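Q: For a teaching handout, I want to show students what a protein-ligand complex looks like in token form. Below are the inputs, and the small molecule is adenosine-5'-diphosphate. Please produce the holo structure.
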Amino acid sequence: MSNEAGGLFLSFEGIDGSGKSTQARLLADRLRALGREVVLTREPGGSPGAEEIRRLVLTGDRQRWSAETEILLFTAARRDHLERTIRPALARGAVVITDRFADSTRLYQGTTRGDLRDVVDRLHALVIGVEPDLTVLIDMDPALALARSLRRLGGDTAEALPEDRFEAFGLGFQQRLRQGYLALAAQEPERIAVIDGGRPAGEIAQDVARVALSRLMPA
Ligand code: ADP
Ligand code: TYD
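A: Here is the structure, written as tokens, with adenosine-5'-diphosphate included.
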């Protein structure tokens, strides 16, 4: 979705607790140091309306929404995020880095909880219709990621309601997610770069910067 203004659209994907937000932030810092305008954003969320939807989908009982209803809610949030945040930023030449985008819906709602991939793809084509220029998949062992997430939830007192509906689906769910993400990356090797997340953050950040810079400044 890069454009004449020089904008570039990057997403981070991976299972819960894989280090996406950490790496998204480190990449944003690195690109800002190079003088680029960077809009660091996230899904669900990234615009005032989408942040309201975030609260609805991430809090409460795990049975609160069916996978079908979630597809509609996440896609509604994404449409607002695209209209209000992503498109305007790209139009002025910024780099947009989003912590999750449509691949999360493909995996979390489309395959891991039943076979709804066709619904996800058709709705995406109808109302979203864009993909990131580059997606960084932070791949890691779900047991390690879950341990990190639980540590974080335990220590986080600032959040009024825990955003843990998906962590609550358990380790087997995260393992299916991981396999699904790797399969998606194998299908779309041009767009999706797989980076080993089971290492110190600085090492991962070096690899992430290398792939991102190769897209920003092709040789
Ligand atoms: P995500 O956005 O994928 O949920 P976070 O970036 O929030 O992941 O990281 C989850 C937890 O793991 C946080 O407590 C974070 O500080 C920690 N963390 C992130 N990257 C690493 C790393 N490479 N090594 C060890 N801990 C990490
Ligand atoms: P996030 O805040 O990135 O959680 P984490 O830091 O644990 O990775 O995302 C919130 C949750 O929302 C996460 O469990 C994945 C889920 N999600 C979906 O199920 N579908 C979607 O389309 C998106 C964007 C997120």
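A: Two things your students might notice: Residues 8-216 form a domain with the Rossmann fold fold (CATH 3.40.50.300). Helices lie at 20-33, 48-58, 67-91, 102-111, 117-127, 142-155, 171-187, 201-216.
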